[in-house]
Amino acid sequence: MSTREQAQALAAEGVPHAEIARLLRVSRARVYQLARPVSPLVPVDGRRLRRARERAGLSQEALAARSLVTVRTVARLETGAIARLRRARLESLAVALGVEGRDLSPRQGSGTRRPSP
Fold this sequence. Notes:
The protein is mainly alpha-helical. It has helices at residues 3-12, 17-24, 28-35, 46-55, 60-66, 71-79, 87-97; strands at 41-43, 84-86.
């Protein structure tokens, strides 16, 4: 079990952070970092993000200013350099664009299909 998993398990049981720090031999500040839940990574379709941004009439800079991501992240998402993002950040982008989070995710079955023999 990783240190993060141990810290999260102890925090879930109600063990005070000072005690977790003592047990795991880390600082209290580190316990706060470790014990907080991490939102899962979700896939993002950069082409759909770019289309939604353009439909909203926003530049990459304007979208970044309205959401929890940097201009660099917006650019990397749109070019496909980043294909997955924390759910909270995806939702922030969706709210800034006025769309649903699922509208920025790849559609089910959108992969390339092989022709039938």
